[in-house]
Amino acid sequence: MHQVHPFQYKRVYSGSVKAVICDWAGTTVDFGSVAPIRAFQALFESHGVSASEAEAREPMGTEKSEHIRRMLAMPAIQKQWQASKGRASTEEDVQALYHEFLPMQIESIRANSALIPGWLVSAQTLREQGIKLGGNTGYSTEMYQALAEVAREYGYVADANVCATEVSKGRPYPYMSQAVMEKLEVAEAQACVKVDDTETGIEEGLNAGMWTVAVAISGNANGLTQPEWDSLNEGQQQVIRKKSYQRMAMSGAHYVIDSVADLPEVVADINEKLAKGIQP
Q: What residues form the catalytic site here (predicted)?
């Protein structure tokens, strides 16, 4: 009779980071992640529903039809919908709204997808280390095509990208990040870093077994555009920074930073941890 050993073997990866997988809006482009918010607010306004910025931001990071579904489930929005339409919303309404949303979102993306300051320098620094740069997003493929075109005009092209509509389930499921790993031909999740500005995006990276880095200032947790942020004095910025850092730390991220401009230092720290056998 064979003896069963009372332990499991766990492989320890001690190499360096091979891939960094970044979200797009609020992480690598669109400071403040305003493109989706403006489009969602305009969409609901066209149906007689006034959605606040906080309501529009709450489901951020999810696939966009799911985002609409969650907004309609909010009591205040559902109440307005019923007052406007004379009935409760249905799944057919979700799909109809999504098709209306597509051109509105694409137009908003084209107007609000400048690169996050410092990203080109960070991307070059990481690529010089042999690190591959992937992307994933709650945007559909049509939305991503518009975004990628703008990013290319600013000088950045990802090595691979996966959209939420290309996998069976979007965030917080790990499938998008895993699909990017496959495209980049990286076998070890421990060698990957997932960077995101939403809690659900960080959860995606954690579920994939990756290192996770939350950006607190450039994205959804802050919600201010670059000019709005720059107009604040240092004291005002510190108040918002503290609140945004606390919020993103609650996501379980391994690291919280202002923006991707700070990413090379984080990757260097992760490399030191990996060399010591520390795993995400």
A: 23 (nucleophile), 64 (schiff-base intermediate with substrate)
Do residues 242 and 217 lie in contact, with contact meaning Cβ atoms separated by under 8 Å?
A: no
- Rounded CA-CA distance 128/262 in Å is 16
Please indicate if the annotation marks 197 as binding a ligand. yes
pLDDT tens profile 131-166: 999 999 999 999 999 999 999 999 999 999 999 999
Looking at the fold, whether 192 and 126 belong to one and the same domain comes out as yes
Q: Which residues form the domain of 42?
A: 36-111
Average pLDDT, the chain: 95
Strand order in the sheet with 19-22: 160-163, 132-137, 19-22, 192-196, 211-215, 255-257
pTM (2 d.p.): 0.89
| Number of structural domains the chain divides into | 2
Residue 26 in any domain: the answer is yes
Residues 214 and 157 in one domain: yes
**25 assigned ligand-binding residue:** yes
Which of 93, 111, 129 terminates a domain? The answer is: 111
Report the CATH number at residue 78: 1.10.150.240
Query: Pick from 48, 76, 111: which residue ends a domain?
Result: 111
Question: What's the pLDDT score for residue 11?
Answer: 75
- Domain shared by 258 and 165, yes or no: yes
Which are the catalytic amino acids? 23, 64
Express the helix, strand and coil content of the chain in percent, nearest 5 each.
50, 10, 40
230-272 pLDDT per residue, tens: 999 999 999 999 999 999 999 999 999 999 999 999 999 999 9
Beta pairing partners, 256: 214
Is residue 262 a known part of a binding site? no
